[in-house]
Design a protein that fits this description.
The protein has helices at about 1-25, 45, 75-85, 95-115, 130-140, 160-165, 190-195, 215-225, 235-240, 245-250, 275-280, 300-320, 330-360, 385-395, 410-415, 435-445, and strands spanning about 60-65, 125, 150-155, 175, 200-205, 230-235, 255, 265-270, 360-365, 375-380, 400, 400-405, 420-425. By secondary structure, the chain is of the alpha/beta class. It has two domains: about 10-70 and about 335-440, Aspartate Aminotransferase, domain 1 (Alpha-Beta Complex); about 80-310, Aspartate Aminotransferase, domain 2, CATH 3.40.640. The strands form three sheets. Strands 2-8-7-6-5-3-4 form a seven-stranded mixed β-sheet, sandwiched between helices. A four-stranded antiparallel β-sheet has the order 9-10-13-12, with helices on one face. Helix 1 (about 1-25) runs antiparallel to helix 13 (about 330-360), helix 3 (about 75-85) packs antiparallel against helix 12 and helix 13 runs parallel beside helix 16. The longest helix has 29 residues, at about 330-360. It starts with a helix and ends with a helix.
């Protein structure tokens, strides 16, 4: 009887994966978004946009640690080089190279805002997401009172936890929204039970950098706003798989990092104008009336901001290659590119998830299926150290992450030793089917 039940479970699981493969192979079954849609992303065209894939030094290397940083697209590299060659002077002065520098920076902000479906004065650039949250945390010191409450999770990267926890020293009550220890997931009912009349901020991740789940951000933001609180969303592990519609999400602040979206090492913070005006200025006093300067205490990196044009050029290139309707809004282009990226990623996720979930001694963290999941796949192996597995993969020219990946509180919640952590495989739309197969073959030998 036991063996009969096991056989039935395996049959159902196999059928589940076959249905997912069918849907991904025929994406119009899922959700056509209009325009002339190619059935799938042209992977060879995509990879031709990234100089790393033509680099002799990286020949035969498989980069499957994209959650820590993606390859830079050629358009961004060109834009950065052009800025240094043509306009590396103080921007926004009256002479020509300076005018050109300022125009490139302003254009980059406006174009990124358009793809994110927000206003340019809502987009802020900082050195990193951790730095951006720290600056807002400082601003919150004069915004919150002793009776106020902040809800943080133990699923997030520390960047969206630590800055808010530091406010406990100001008398603010910080409450922890804990994951289900068996699934690693955050659950909506737990949020509802924690919200109160004193809740002022809820900080949560759009996508976990360990569990890989894409959380129902829109639903949670609506519940948070109904409770009269602000929603601060960490989108670092989400944005590399397609830009979010931030206006549609309605978050009060949305954070992500451009070096994980094929661009320079910059953190992006999108903040609603109303909140911008409500918080105290953290920049120079004479910048009080400049929305984009109020939360940039140090001077911005002019060249890196200008190079964001290259990131948008890449997204535009992908759109124009796969769709024939160029008259649509940037937000619709973003939605369509997002759709192409996610379908390509899901197709590659299926064999890897299937392999790991079937492997004896392997504990896969997060969902087995690809729905509401990013291709950030973490696991542990009984009797083997994650660092040892990562080293064996590195010997086969496969780059993965191991350790806690700045999600130490999640490690504690899942009872994973901090000194060991997990093995993390993370890929994006430019990862090829051949690379995924090579990773599976290597893991098969190692495990």
């Amino acid at each position: 009887m036991i063996y009969g039940c096991l056989a039935f479970k395996l049959y159902v699981k196999s059928l589940y994966f076959k249905v997912e493969i069918l849907l991904i192979s025929h994406p119009n079954i899922l959700s056509p978004i209009g325009g002339t849609l190619m059935a799938k992303l042209d992977i060879e065209f995509v990879r031709s946009q990234f100089p790393a894939f033509a680099e002799t030094a990286l020949a035969n290397f498989i980069h499957i640690e994209n959650a820590g940083g993606t390859y830079a697209c050629g358009q961004m590299i060109d834009a950065l080089a052009d800025f240094y060659k043509q306009s590396k002077v103080q921007p926004y002065y009256g002479f020509e190279p300076s005018n050109q520098a300022g125009e490139k920076m302003s254009l980059a902000r406006a174009r990124l805002a358009s793809w994110l479906n927000v206003r340019p004065n809502e987009v802020h650039f900082g050195p990193s997401t951790s730095q951006n949250t720290y600056v807002i945390g400082q601003a919150m010191r004069n915004y919150l009172g002793p009776a106020d409450e902040i809800i943080v999770t133990n699923q997030d990267h520390e960047a969206n936890i630590g800055a808010w926890r530091k406010l406990e020293g100001e008398g603010v009550l910080v409450k922890e929204w804990q994951v289900n220890p068996f699934t690693g997931e955050l659950e909506t009912n737990d949020l509802l039970n924690m919200l109160s009349d004193n809740t002022r901020i809820v900080a949560f991740t759009h996508c976990s950098n360990i569990v890989g789940s894409i959380n129902p951000a829109s639903e949670w933001i609506r519940l948070i706003h109904e409770a009269g609180a602000l929603a601060f969303v960490d989108g670092v592990s989400y944005a590399g798989h397609g830009f979010p519609d931030i206006r549609g999400l309605d978050s009060d602040i949305y954070f992500f990092s451009l070096y994980k979206v094929y661009g320079p090492h910059l953190g992006v913070m999108v903040m609603k104008s109303e909140l911008n005006q409500a918080l105290p200025n953290q920049g120079h006093y004479f910048n009080l009336g400049l929305p984009n300067a109020r939360f940039t205490p140090a001077g911005p990196d002019h060249a890196q901001i200008a190079s964001v044009n290259g990131v948008i050029d890449y997204f535009d290139t992908i759109y124009s290659y796969h769709y024939d309707d160029m008259s649509v809004s940037d937000s619709l282009k973003s939605e369509r590119v997002n759709y192409l990226f996610k379908n390509a990623e899901r197709k590659n996720m299926i064999p890897l998830l299937e392999f790991l979930s079937d492997r004896k001694g392997v504990t896969l963290i997060g969902k087995v299926g690809v729905n509401d999941r990013a291709p950030t796949i973490s696991f542990t192996v009984e009797g083997k150290k994650p660092a040892d597995i990562a080293e064996l993969l590195a010997n086969e020219k496969i780059g993965v992450a191991n350790g806690n990946c700045y999600a130490t509180r999640l490690m504690d919640a899942l009872e994973i030793p901090l000194k060991d952590g997990v093995v993390r495989l993370s890929f994006v739309h430019y990862t090829s089917e051949m690379e995924i197969n090579k990773v599976i073959y290597a893991l098969d030998r190692i495990l």
